[in-house]
């Protein structure tokens, strides 16, 4: 018999529809029932690709005896953290305050007024790992709820106060940050043997590496060394799936070999961009190869037919965790020719005893691909071509296995990240299919995840959009619209960008210069959080800061520029003390360290008349620039950016305006002069 989760929009919730637990989704029905019956709430938060979530579900939530305890004494609520990141953030802070650590599944006990009074993460079915069994936890909570309600209320108040204190807005508006000092601190803690920072588990730190790339573009050689070294080590395989493309969530060891095998859309969007930007910085074709393989993986395995992108692939299959991605030597010998097998043996670590469970092999190169190409006396592009052929064969072999489960919900903010990646790659690499992917995904979001009032929804699955959009959804949408606007400069796209930006400012306005993470109309929360720290994805406030920076450039909006500056200054002390938790903010601080460049192109002809200028502009990665264009029949519509106001053609020819901090050089219709002006950032303009 199914429970209330059978009609949920979240695939994760639907995974629990056949549990004997009388689950409720988070909502008015469950919260009212807890209040009326004065029962504690058992809140279980996880996500579809979470390995230990599946383990606890099998051990406890599928067990009739455990379910009977939950059903009699608790109101049990199941939440998908990807649909409700606000709930996840609030109650994870309570768990960390209580236990000193966090993770998923998250198991929290709440009073009917939503205050946490006890919690943890995974609980085993029997006492193990130094933890009580889940049923022991339940019986202890039942006992204290009925026999010591004062202790419950005291715990609830202490934990709630601890959570509230963590959301207090810092008063750092006058503090300054030294980005060179941040780079030096990162250098001191860098792992020069294996790449990255820290020991296992080791995360890819895409936003931090992106910050280093931006510093490298300004001549910081130390920043470039760290960025390149990290990217080289990750590209060798293991956490990076060299056969299928794309990155797993993180490495369980310090050497990037054995990953936690789920593949998340957001990781791959962010890492594709980082490798793309590294290619733009260095011209190294290995980085281009990794970027395009990652984007192609997204198109091949995470794309909805109508344009959006799914959330993730699970770590587990019916054969076990990671078995889909690991190999036996016999399977490689059977699939490949002797020549191909020899190339694999010359380039990859293939120990006879294996390097994973049960003698299986996770494929990883022996060294940097450039070093291997030199040893094999071949060019890097030739080696990449031969390896790509091998991997295409192995992908076909892999298809014979049971594939990982796909979380088929489409999350607005994660899709905005991948839209930016496809748009940038399409323009820089001149790949029309990537531009099409970006535009189709944006169209999907605007069609299925924006309602008639203009408000955004958080997620969509199986024809149904659910949960109000968060700050990161709105701010991310502004950035995605900008990315698609710069493909063909559609006035309607820019108008939509203005519209979403306006809703973000009015419905999420918070304390000081910052924003709340949740919409003003959302009332089912213990508190309304303001979160600054970046996690696996940029924080909503960091994305909102970038949105303000963009509008300041397009609209010559001094208020937005001031807001951007004040927002970035609010996180200076945290970013200085914990740079890995504020990588996107550091990117913003780098933008703040110098004037931005604004480019305007005008022509009475079609887009082809400005193509020579666009080709020059798009040949480089330009994080501190924006570009707008008016061509053909666009006219002087109000939908156009203010950057295009009073921009006239010279001699009735296509004309470019290159400005720095909104002070412009002389307009030109000469492409070579335009190229010189783009690099002339230190000149005093008239």
Percentage of residues assigned to helices? 40-55%
- What value does the average pLDDT take? 95
CATH class division of the largest domain = Mainly Alpha
Task: Give me the side-by-side strand order of the main sheet.
Answer: 1-3-2-4-5
Q: What percentage of amino acids are in beta strands?
A: 5-15%
| Derived structural class | alpha+beta
pLDDT below 50 for ≥5 consecutive residues: which ranges? 682-686
Largest sheet: 5 strands, mixed
Count of all domains:
4
What this model shows, in words?
With 686 residues, the protein is of the alpha+beta class. The protein has four domains: 4-166, Glutaredoxin (3-Layer(aba) Sandwich), CATH 3.40.30.10; 179-324 and 406-592, Glycosyltransferase (Alpha/alpha barrel), CATH 1.50.10.10; 329-398, no CATH class; 597-678. Helix content is 48%, strand content 10%. The protein has a five-stranded mixed sheet, with helices on both faces. The chain has a four-stranded mixed sheet with strand order 15-14-16-17, sandwiched between helices. Strand 6 and strand 7 form a beta hairpin. Helix 21 (540-555) runs antiparallel to helix 22 (558-570). The longest helix has 19 residues, at 380-398. The protein is globular, with a radius of gyration of 26 Å. The model is unreliable at 682-686 (pLDDT under 50).
